[in-house]
TrEMBL record:
<dbReference type="InterPro" id="IPR021773">
    <property type="entry name" value="TPC11"/>
</dbReference>
<dbReference type="Pfam" id="PF12584">
    <property type="entry name" value="TRAPPC10"/>
</dbReference>
<feature type="region of interest" description="Disordered">
    <location>
        <begin position="913"/>
        <end position="932"/>
    </location>
</feature>
<dbReference type="GO" id="GO:0006891">
    <property type="term" value="P:intra-Golgi vesicle-mediated transport"/>
</dbReference>
<dbReference type="GO" id="GO:1990071">
    <property type="term" value="C:TRAPPII protein complex"/>
</dbReference>
<dbReference type="Pfam" id="PF11817">
    <property type="entry name" value="Foie-gras_1"/>
</dbReference>
<feature type="domain" description="TRAPPC10/Trs130 C-terminal">
    <location>
        <begin position="1090"/>
        <end position="1265"/>
    </location>
</feature>
<dbReference type="GO" id="GO:0005829">
    <property type="term" value="C:cytosol"/>
</dbReference>
<feature type="domain" description="Trafficking protein particle complex subunit 11">
    <location>
        <begin position="448"/>
        <end position="564"/>
    </location>
</feature>
<feature type="compositionally biased region" description="Low complexity">
    <location>
        <begin position="1220"/>
        <end position="1231"/>
    </location>
</feature>
<keyword id="KW-0333">Golgi apparatus</keyword>
<dbReference type="InterPro" id="IPR022233">
    <property type="entry name" value="TRAPPC10/Trs130_C"/>
</dbReference>
<feature type="region of interest" description="Disordered">
    <location>
        <begin position="1213"/>
        <end position="1242"/>
    </location>
</feature>
<feature type="domain" description="TRAPPC10 Ig-like">
    <location>
        <begin position="806"/>
        <end position="960"/>
    </location>
</feature>
<feature type="domain" description="TRAPPC10/Trs130 N-terminal">
    <location>
        <begin position="24"/>
        <end position="335"/>
    </location>
</feature>
<protein>
    <recommendedName>
        <fullName>Trafficking protein particle complex subunit 10</fullName>
    </recommendedName>
</protein>
<keyword id="KW-0813">Transport</keyword>
Length: 1278
């Protein structure tokens, strides 16, 4: 193994970066034959061989790699061939080459052949099969020889003699020293063959070596297996990979050795020991750190090879090799990462081996002097850092501080340990024992290594200087600490920076510098509080308390002591000690100290719950309120408390008129218990303790077109998430905060707070109405006051002063007129006290009498709805006033009682809505609304009440609903007339009807109303109707209109008081023009010769209009024409088939002149065609009065011209007639399509009143049979 080490040059004390060493070994290739020939070709060969890369394919599926081959060409000697059992790869010849330029047959036979034979026999004796014969041909030699055989004859002989089965093992190199294309081609072929054979030899021999190594590793469980021997074998493989410039593969070998050794140490700690570990369990006598400035530490390698290395020696050598390879791979930051892991693992492994015995009989164990590991770690950290600085520039180092800061921190920690161990941090300095320990530690470092002897800042010099004096140690420790804190801060690792700062604070406390220590302790405490590290917070607070005590910061010290006294992570004795510190200060005399000290409450006690009595926290003026606090004392011992006070803020809101007792009760919590969130003493709300986000969608739309303008998310509990948190690290009270020592303070004196839960009750009496907000809670212990600055969530109680009120409300959803209904009277006394003799004076109304029951009671309730008493209700009634005596009741109570009232509607109130309607359009809308809503008519009845607490009268309006709705209709049968009255029950109750009657308001003796109704009682159910019918009979001519009055008695069907007399329901209406003037008859005849009408055949339709009476007052209108005592009137008829069963052929309407005389008849004939088969109803025949136009200047058209025009354009003045739409539509079509009548005065049509026209054919049907040629049969069934 050829290892070259170059020393670093020094220039006048100035340091230069260390030289990076590498392996000088190359694969060995032996050369036999003509040495002079090879010597002449060597320069070209060594230069051309590594120029082209070759693909190296390896076994076990490993990825192929491109490598550049170099070789160390040496003269062939038998001693170079490996002997049996030799596993060294670096001295192994991978290829053997025989060189010759023989071109003479005789020479070949006499010397060359024998020489090749001897050469091959030696190779065969050593089982070496990797060889190559190179024949060099030269044109110059060929010209000098006369008896030369043809070309390649010597080559052929060599191939026949030695390469029968491997002809490729003999190659020809033509004119290698000439610069020609033929020579270059020959060189290329030769170099390719050489590289191929070398790779084949590498692959074969390395594979065999790996198999042997794997076999050796599998024997590790056998007795006598040595890790050191195996280490040297696998390192040999690593050397070969490094020799081939395959640094990654070489690094893998060392990583496997590292993992194997680590696993054995772990197993050893678990009790599964290996005998070979005995060699590493030697006492540690040297701790000079890692050696990284040369590629191979031969001294430690020899120790491993001789099985004399300690654990630190093995780890140091192994890491130095890994470091060298990582530097070659340009991964210096991985060096720092691995170094940190190595240092921590070594410390743990040595502690593990130190406590275990390999051989109980020999009692062998690892012995590590105190401080030795700290020295080794410190030196190693600085060595790694300087090694990285040597191969990187400053910009790279600054950009990768995150990789190296761990080593700086570890070095700082170990230097601190050495300082404490050697007495360099104590107040009095090191003693003799400390000095002896320091000398021993420096002796274990040994002499400084030559490669760092001239460096002024070598790790060895730094450590030796730091341990030499107190001042030097302080300088080095502070420099390292500040540099580490700065690096941690720059990369954002604040926790680690605070941890180093905490160690620095401890150092300052040892050096009597509390001012400097406080800054670091406060910073560390703030970080631990924000992140919730409870144990670290406790430990830091203990240090901070000591620091504050030395600085004389009384308030801060007391607050920290209160936090520690309530800290469950401390022992009981420690907690009592800190609590006693507070009590001792609190019990000092006032003259010895200044003003009182105000501290936060959360460290002393926590407010858990608050309970109001009454629960709704609403009380009237003069009422009593109780507040029960539940306090959780954090102190470990009972504490005598001078006073606990609640400071209350009083306010009168602008809308205080709304704060009645009822309103407050609805808007307050019912249980009266308010819980407060639990917080660990001294910890602000961390992110984990914050409430969940209450997010809601928010949309904003345009007011014009309702389009979406913006969409967003709103947080409804932002006051909980962003409310101000009291920082426990800020020990001073917020500036400007004072206690509210006003008139509204609730106090409780001389208490003892026991550890844990305590209940304190405050009692108060309400004096002034308004809202009282609990702002602060203050606990006074001597000169110390613990204050809860803000009680949150907000806690309030309300005091109200209420005016007396009277409320009258029905007991049901609606009051029904005509029957007794219960009404509830509620008197809220407010601040008024009901005295004996106080009464309610109700003004009587004829339409609404008040029904009195002697058993009526009045109940008295408190303002919390608790029933107090009940007394009989006394009522006195006169003609105009009903007096109700109220029971005696105190202020802020409620009196309730019930009375029965009955509203008696007048005869016309049931039809108020209809009678008041003057417009026909309004009447139509009201009818439609009544059909849609089907609701009852309502009547408001006002009552005036005089109350004893007011000089003003109170007007109460009660709304009554009429339960019935009535409507009438006129029915005709020829000249006979009938009146029908429909009574509809709109309420939810069932009624019993009796004694129905219909009377003529004019008391006409010539008119008789004959009832056709049963005389028995009838039940009308909810939402149902009953019809009553009377026949009109008269003896002489009656007036044009009749005024009728319908009445019917009713009572609830389930009434238990049949003796109660109720006023009947009445309905008044008027009937006009009810006499029959015309009789219309329709007949349909089949075609001549046919017995039945057929579909598609024309049939004859005859309409007969007959006048039944002579001239009367109702006929005197614009259509009447008198001539010589002969009166006629114009009528218009119209045939309409709304069911589309008939097709009217020809004119469907026309105007006729009708004589005004009894029995006068006019007949109209037309043709119709049935469209369907079956019993078809007759078409409708309608009759109208034909009135001329009102315009005096209009030209009157001849009647015949109108009759001839079937599409008559008229303006029909018809009120709510559904059939008028067809005429209107035809008129509009004609006027739009034809302009010949444009601008002419239009006649008008007027419909007859109900009963004036009787159509006797209404409802008649005629049989229509289908035609014989119809393939599809359509039958109409009606």
């Amino acid at each position: 193994m050829d290892s070259a080490a170059a020393a670093a040059a020094e220039e006048e004390g100035r340091e230069k970066p260390p030289v990076i060493y590498t392996m000088e070994n190359k694969p060995i290739v032996t050369c036999a034959g003509d040495q002079n020939l090879f010597t002449s070709l060597y320069p070209t060969l060594s230069q051309q061989l590594p120029r082209e890369p070759m693909e190296w394919r390896r076994s076990y599926g490993r990825a192929p790699k491109m490598i550049h081959l170099e070789s160390n060409f040496v003269q062939f000697k038998e001693e170079l061939l490996p002997k049996e059992g030799n596993k060294a790869l670096l001295t192994f010849p991978f290829l053997h080459i025989y060189w010759t330029e023989c071109c003479d047959t005789e020479v070949y036979k006499t010397t060359v052949k024998d020489d090749i034979t001897k050469w091959q026999n030696v190779l065969k004796a050593h089982n070496s099969v990797d060889w190559l014969i190179v024949v060099v041909e030269s044109d110059a030699k060929k010209k000098n020889k006369t008896n030369i055989l043809p070309r390649t004859s010597i080559v052929d002989k060599i191939r026949n003699d030695f390469c029968n089965k491997q002809s490729d093992r003999c190659v020809v190199l033509s004119d290698p020293l000439k610069d020609s294309s033929r020579s270059q081609e020959s060189w290329n072929a030769f170099l390719t063959k050489l590289r191929t054979l070398l790779l084949m030899s590498f692959t074969k021999n390395l594979g065999k070596f790996e198999d042997d190594m794997r076999t050796l590793r599998e024997k590790r469980t056998e007795p006598g297996w040595s890790f050191c021997e195996y280490f040297m074998v696998q390192e040999e493989l690593a050397f070969v990979f490094e020799m081939l410039q395959q640094f990654e593969d070489a690094l893998v070998q060392y990583d496997e050795l590292d993992a194997l050794f680590s696993q054995y140490v772990v197993n050893f700690g678990a009790g599964d020991g290996a005998n070979w570990l005995t060699f590493f369990c030697q006492p540690v006598r040297s701790w000079n750190g890692l050696i990284l400035r040369k590629p191979i530490d031969m001294e430690k390698r020899e120790l491993i090879q001789n099985q004399e290395a300690t654990l630190l020696d093995l780890r140091s050598y192994l890491f130095s090799r890994q470091c060298t390879l990582l530097i070659f791979l340009q991964r210096p930051w991985e060096v720092s990462q691995r170094a940190l892991e190595l240092l921590h693992n070594c410390v743990q492994e040595l502690k593990l081996l130190e406590n275990k015995y390999m051989d109980p009989s020999k009692s062998l164990k690892v012995s590590v002097p105190p401080g030795a590991l700290d020295c080794w770690v410190f030196l190693s950290c600085l060595e790694v850092l300087q090694r990285i600085e040597g191969c990187c520039d400053r910009a790279q180092i600054d950009a990768n501080v995150s990789h190296t800061v761990g080593l700086w921190s570890y070095a700082t920690e170990k230097l601190k340990s050495l300082g404490y161990l050697c007495g360099l941090v104590s107040e009095k300095g090191p003693n003799s024992e400390d000095l002896n320990r320091t000398v021993d530690l420096l002796a274990g470092l040994g002499a400084e290594r030559p490669e760092t002897a001239n460096a002024s800042q070598s790790p060895y010099k730094k450590l030796k200087e730091a341990l030499s004096s107190v001042e030097a140690f302080e300088k080095h420790y502070l420099d390292l600490s500040h540099a580490t804190i700065e690096m941690y801060t720059n990369i954002g690792r604040i926790r680690s920076a605070k941890l180093v700062g905490k160690d620095l604070a401890e150092f300052y406390m040892r050096k009597k510098g509390p001012q400097k220590a406080e800054v670091y302790l406060q910073g560390a405490l703030k970080t631990y509080l924000a992140e919730g590290w409870a144990l670290l917070v406790t430990h830091t607070r203990k240090q901070l308390a000591e620091c504050q005590k030395h600085l004389g910061q009384i308030e801060n010290y007391l607050q920290t002591s209160s936090l520690l006294a309530g800290d469950s992570l401390l022992t009981e004795d420690e907690r009592r000690s800190f609590c006693q510190e507070i009590l001792d200060f609190a019990n000092q005399q006032a003259e010895n100290q200044g003003q009182k000290v105000i501290l936060p409450m959360h460290s002393f006690a926590q407010l858990k719950t608050l309970h109001f009595d009454p629960p709704n926290a609403v009380v009237h003026v003069g009422g009593k309120l109780s507040i029960e606090l539940t306090l959780l004392s954090q102190m470990p011992i009972p504490v005598q408390v001078d006073q606990i006070a609640i400071h209350v803020h009083f306010s009168i809101e602008k809308n205080s008129y709304r704060k009645t007792a009822e309103w407050l009760t609805k808007h307050k919590t019912s249980n009266g218990v308010i819980s407060f969130p639990y917080e660990i003493a001294g910890f602000p709300l961390s992110r984990n303790n914050l409430p969940a986000l209450e997010l809601y969608e928010m949309y904003e739309r345009s007011p014009s077109d309702n389009s979406l303008n913006t969409a967003g998310i709103i947080c409804k509990n932002v006051h909980m998430l962003l409310r101000r948190q009291e920082s426990s690290s800020s020990l001073d009270m917020p500036s400007g905060v004072t206690l509210e020592d006003g008139a509204h303070v609730l106090k409780c004196n001389n208490l003892i707070l026991e550890p844990g839960v305590n209940k304190i009750i405050f009692n108060t009496q309400a004096k002034e109405p308004g809202t009282y907000t609990l702002r602060q809670l203050c606990t006074s212990v001597g000169k110390v006051q613990f204050v809860l600055l803000h009680i949150y969530p907000i806690v309030q109680y309300d005091v109200y002063s209420q005016e007396p009120q009277l409320k009258v409300e029905p007991m049901t959803d609606s009051l029904l007129a005509g029957i007794p209904q219960k009404v509830k009277f509620t008197v809220t006394t407010g601040h008024y006290t009901m005295k004996n003799g106080d009464t309610l004076q109700l003004s009587n109304a004829d339409a609404m009498p008040i029904l009195y029951h002697p058993e009526s009671k009045a109940a008295i309730y408190s303002n919390t709805r608790e029933k107090i008493s009940e007394s009989s209700l006394r009522i006195q009634s006169s003609e105009k006033i009903t007096s109700i005596s109220l029971p005696v009741a105190p202020a802020y109570h409620v009196i309730e009682f019930e009375l029965e009232v009955m509203y008696l509607p007048s005869a016309t109130e049931a039809a108020v809505e209809k009678e008041n309607t003057t417009s026909k359009e309004d009447h139509r809308k009201n009818k439609e609304k009544q059909k849609q809503d089907n609701c009852m008519a309502t009547v408001d009845q006002k009552v005036t009440i005089d109350c004893p607490w007011s000089i003003y009268s109170t007007i109460i309006a009660l709304t009554f609903c009429i339960p019935f709705n009535a409507k009438h209709s006129l029915l005709s049968a020829g000249k006979r007339k009938y009146l029908q009255v429909c009574v509809q029950n709109l309420s939810e109750l069932c009624f019993q009807l009796s004694d129905n009657s219909l009377k003529n308001s004019a008391d006409c003796t010539d008119l008789q109303l004959v009832p056709l109704n049963p005389e028995s009682q009838q039940v009308i159910y909810s939402k149902q109707s009953i019809f009553f019918v009377w026949e009109l009979k008269w003896t002489k001519e009656l007036p044009l209109s009749l005024q009728c009055l319908f009445s019917v008695s009713f009572c609830p069907a389930t009434s238990k008081e049949p003796s109660l007399t109720l006023k009947p329901f009445t309905y008044e209406f008027q009937v006009e023009n009810f006499f029959t003037l015309y009789h219309v008859k329709t007949e349909i005849f089949p075609p001549l010769g046919a017995e039945y009408c057929k579909t598609g055949s024309l049939c004859s339709l005859e309409v007969s209009i007959t006048r039944l009476v002579d001239l009367s007052e109702v006929d005197r209108d614009e259509a009447l024409t008198e001539s010589d005592g002969y009166c006629t009137t114009k009528l218009m008829y119209e045939v309409v088939d709304n069911s589309s069963n008939w097709a009217v052929c020809g004119k469907s309407s026309g105007v006729i002149s009708m004589p005004v005389a009894a029995r006068a008849t006019h007949k109209v004939h037309m043709e119709v065609m049935p469209l369907f088969a079956g019993y078809l109803p007759f078409p409708d025949v309608r009759l109208f009065k034909y009135l001329p136009h009102h315009s005096a200047h209009s030209m009157q058209l001849d009647a015949d011209s109108w009759i001839e025009n079937d599409n008559l354009s008229v303006d029909k003045n018809v009120d709510d007639q559904a059939d008028s739409s067809s005429i209107r539509s035809r008129g509009s079509l004609h006027s739009a399509a034809s302009g010949e009548h444009k601008g002419l005065p239009m006649p008008r049509l007027q419909s007859f009143s109900s009963g004036q026209v009787f159509n006797c054919s209404t409802g008649m049907q005629i049989l229509v049979i289908p035609s014989k040629d119809d393939h599809v049969l359509e039958v109409n069934i009606t």
